[in-house]
Amino acid sequence: MNVMTVLSVGFIVGGLFFFATATIGLLRFPDFFTRLHATGKGDTLAVTLSLVGLACYEGFTLTGVKIVCIAVFMFLAQPTATHAISRAGIKSGLQYWRRKEAQK
Amino acid sequence: MTTFLLGIGLILCFLVLLVLYRVVFGPGVFNRVAAISAIGTKTLIILLIMGFLYNRVEMFIDISMVYALLNFIGCIAAAKYLEMEK
Amino acid sequence: MVFRKDDIIVNTISRILIPFIQLYALYVIMHGHYSPGGGFQGGVILGASLVLLLLTRGYDETRLKIPENSMKLFASAGVLIYAGVGLLCLFFLGNFLDYSKLAVLLHVDPAQARSLGILAVEIGVGFAVMAVMYSIFLDISTGGVLAEDEEEE
């Protein structure tokens, strides 16, 4: 087994783990802003790890460098989109979730 | 390696079906926009894995890059429209 | 009217990313014969980058840099390039859009002339699609009232 193959398998499994936890968070959290925490941070890290793993599998060719370029773009653009949508949510006046409501 | 990538792709498809619940039943429009952005991110990885399975990675990289661009621009346009709703 | 978005994070990231998006759109136009892409897809990405500029800067600032009249020129220039290449092939005793007859003009063999002719046509299509997408977005967002008509009232 090659060193690069083992490394790429490790990165891709790590990316899949963070995808799974982000999806479970999106389904189970009680409020819109908490769900944005889960999908904004978890999805960005998972995409970066998965793309780095796929680039390790491909090697140092033109295709591998293009995959790293996609990863850099997603790392810059995904948190900006999360920030924009959460700012729209605050300006529209959504209700926050309070802990006292759950204990009724 | 191809069997491993095929398994990863199938698990990601199952995760997309789970997020679809939030698109249909999310109370309000903000939850739906956030869930659509999450689906777009997972689709990007599924496209690249399909490129590796068919042994033609050069074709699928350009498509996935364009999808990442359009996902970003769509999310910002939706946020700007929803901000002026009030 | 599309007002300026008063958000400093989105404005800064858009300023950094828009030139790279346009560079990628030009790459997609040029590599149409080898990978998925071509004239129409590259034109759409160029139009999307201009729409992002409108969303983050607002209508008043962008109108100074990219006025509507220049977009009319771009659309017409795109169609002119497409039909012009076709008519140029007619002058050299070929059919309409028969690029192999351009080999005399460019001093290459006929197969290479076909490839270069298709590239020229794709560039024309890219110009036209970019201009039309920008114009459609402006039409729908301003309600069909151009700035010149507003100043006359």
Features:
heterotrimer, A: 104 residues, 4 helices, B: 86 residues, mainly alpha, 3 helices, 0% strand
Strand % of chain A is under 5%
Number of strands of chain B: 0
Approximate helicity band of chain A: over 70%
Helix/strand-derived category of chain A reads: mainly alpha
Report the C-alpha radius of gyration of chain B, rounded. Answer: 15 Å
The global form of chain B is flat
Cα end-to-end separation of chain B: 52 Å
Structure write-up:
- The complex is a heterotrimer of chains A (104), B (86) and C (153).
- Chain A has 104 residues and is mainly α.
- In chain A, 84% of the residues lie in helices and 0% in strands.
- The radius of gyration of chain A is 18 Å and the shape is elongated.
- Chain B has one domain.
- In chain B, 88% of the residues lie in helices and 0% in strands.
- In chain B, 36% of the residues are buried.
- The model of chain B has no long low-confidence stretch (mean pLDDT 92).
- With 153 residues, chain C is an all-alpha fold.
- Chain C has one domain.
- Chain C contains 7 helices and no strands.
- In chain C, helix 1 runs antiparallel to helix 2 and helix 2 runs parallel beside helix 6.
- The relative contact order of chain C is 0.16.
List the SSEs and their pairings.
The complex is a heterotrimer of chains A (104), B (86) and C (153).
Chain A: H1 3-28, H2 32-58, H3 62-91, H4 99-102
Helix pairs in contact in A: 1-2, 2-3
Chain B: H1 2-25, H2 29-53, H3 57-83
Helix pairs in contact in B: 1-2, 2-3
Chain C: H1 8-30, H2 39-57, H3 59-65, H4 68-91, H5 103-106, H6 110-142, H7 147-152
Helix pairs in contact in C: 1-2, 2-3, 2-6, 4-6
Quick overview of this protein structure:
Chain A is an all-alpha fold. Chain A has helices at 3-28, 32-58, 62-91, 99-102.
